[in-house]
Amino acid sequence: MRVTVALAQVQPVTLDIPANRHRFDDFLERAAAMGANLVVFPELALTGYACGDGFFEVAEPVPGPSTEHLAATARKLGVHVIWGMPERGLPGVLYNSAVLAGPDGYIGTWRKHTLPGHATDRGGAGAFPDRRFFRSGNRSPVFETAIGRIGMMVCYDIFFPEIARLLTLKGADLVVGISGSPAFEKDIFEPLVLARAMENTIPFAYCNLAGTEGDIAYWGGSRLIGPGDPERRVPGSPIVCQAAYDVEDLVCGEIDYDLTHRFRPSFPVLRDLRVDMYRQLLDAAEEHLD
Fold this sequence. Notes:
Elements: E1 2-9, H1 17-33, E2 38-40, H2 55-58, H3 65-77, E3 80-88, E4 94-102, E5 105-111, H4 130-133, E6 142-145, E7 148-154, H5 161-169, E8 174-179, H6 186-200, E9 204-208, E10 210-213, E11 216-219, E12 223-225, E13 239-242, E14 249-256, H7 257-263, H8 275-288
């Protein structure tokens, strides 16, 4: 199966959901005109990242008004769409979520598993807001869709290879990672995204925020990575397409799930997994981290 993926690297308007939904619709129409089957927006693109206590005011249930709006647009255009937003759960409980909808409506949600609390610049000033506002997710679904089985990750989740490996072992055809990664993280994030694709021999779609929000600059650099080139028989995860650094952009590329099956025999990382290492990892984690 061949799937065309568009990466909508946007700069959201902080706390203005109507304005951001309007921008989403514009990017979705442009992506559909480019032949996209799936359009991916970044982490918290519906509201912006710098919302502070405003997260409690703008968070929505899923499904909810924005899910219904974007599902209707997806239905009209015949595309699937993934976007990041603050999700309202029980009263006072929020999640940093990635939402997936398609022509037939809402499909599913991934709640960010790992919530950062480290500094946002090299001087140690400030911190990512996740631990202040959000509860971590604890389910790791892979969603069956008309364009294949899709797994999702949100930002800091990408730092943990176990998550991408779990989605791969659950049968994902495509892993999608969305983020709001600041400029100082660029040199850290770029190799991680490539590694998640290569170590699982799986297509990986990565979409990051761009531009500035308050005093935070985002590096953009969204990219679609293939599983590898089976003809070359050389390990690697070639970039199919890549967005510009720093500024808004929309790029589109095609992946072919058949390449995954053709490439894995020549780079058999899944075949060579050692289950006993997972048991040792669990033992070590329980001994040293509990």
